[in-house]
Amino acid sequence: MTSRNPDPAARLDRAKRRARIFRSPPRRPLAVRRAVQVLTLLVTVAIGLQFAHWVGGVMDGARVGVRPPGVEGFLPISALISLRHWVADGTFSMIHPAGLVIFGLACLTALFLKKAFCSWLCPVGTVAEALARLSHLAFRRRIKLPTWLDRSLRGLKYLLAFYFVYAVFVQMSPHEIAAFLNSPYNKVADIKMLLFFTQMSALTAKVLGALVILSFVVPYFWCRFLCPYGALLGLLSSLSPLKIERRLPDCTACGHCAAVCPAFLDVDRKTRVADPECTGCLECVAQCPAPEALAVRAGRGWRGRLRPVVFAAAVLLIFFGGIGLAKLSGRWRTEIGEAEFMRRAQELDSPKYHHARGRVPEYGPGD
Question: CB under 8 Å to 278, separation ≥6 — which residues?
């Protein structure tokens, strides 16, 4: 819902104020969210370094360190296929179980806490936010594409999300799903993913470099226009009972909430923010000068409000608590042994470790 002032003079004053704060310097981010972001980023970097060290040993035929299951969080397509297999067949694939757990917990977080995974936990989102702040400092304003172009490009990530969901849940048969999950390719998908970055082609380097530059010039370019993961979480977050609510009697119409919204939402014009682009970052709540004007609430008429620190605790509880339960239930570590990993690492150039749009070569029991 939106609330617009019918007074033309008031509308003009609001427009001038919004234009002024759009050029204002970036404000200090919500401290508790920044702490969670830094913690998650450090954990992700540690997992990446540990995995790279382990892969180096495996490629050389030596046992070096331990493979960290958390690296499977970077295999979202494999996780989506595992989810389809689990839903349709009732079988929880143990090829990359941590990937399915992480994907499921991200979806669960979206259902209860908006797109908090994107703004609190996702390392790509954290890097994108850092680039956005550098962009703001460099250009002294928040850069946003024209509305018509912004809306058109935003549709790309929803089209990509639809394509992947349709391909996995509609086009692939149960036999193809099982064949992919147990294929030689899927069993070493994490190793191939690492080599994609450590041995990247010139074209890959140019594409990644272009995305970094675009994310600096147009903040959140990847997250806003291209990330299918975020698009799926955004659609799920529409079902979340928690929403940012603005109470008109307490609102001072300062516009600070809209000025800091990374999704460029008109928070200062809404009474309830239900847009799937809302990431639940709570920056608008943190910047609001009127304590009761803007808050996270669980529905109209709900008198209580969820404070940012409680929201942060809920994010950590669902995500890391869920990982803890997965470990206790034995659904975290892959069933693939280290000897098998070492054998497969020596034959990665074989055609059986390739795929074409999810179609994998035929393989036998010995593969």
Answer: 114, 115, 237, 243, 244, 263, 265
Alpha carbons 266 and 181: distance in angstroms, whole number: 43
Q: Using alpha carbons, select from 158, 127, 162 the residue that is nearest to residue 230.
A: 158
State the residue range of the domain holding 178.
30-239+307-344
198-239, pLDDT tens digit by residue? 999 999 999 999 999 999 999 999 999 999 999 999 999 999
| Per-residue pLDDT tens over the stretch 89-126 | 999 999 999 999 999 999 999 999 999 999 999 999 99
The answer to whether position 320 is within a domain reads: yes
Determine, yes or no, domain membership for 7.
Answer: no
Q: What is the mean pLDDT of the chain?
A: 90
pTM above 0.85, yes or no: yes
Total count of domains within the chain: 1
What is the spatial order of strands in the sheet that 294-297 belongs to? 272-273, 243-246, 294-297
**Letter for the amino acid at 360?**
V
Residue 272, strand partner residues:
245
* Residue 270 DSSP label: B
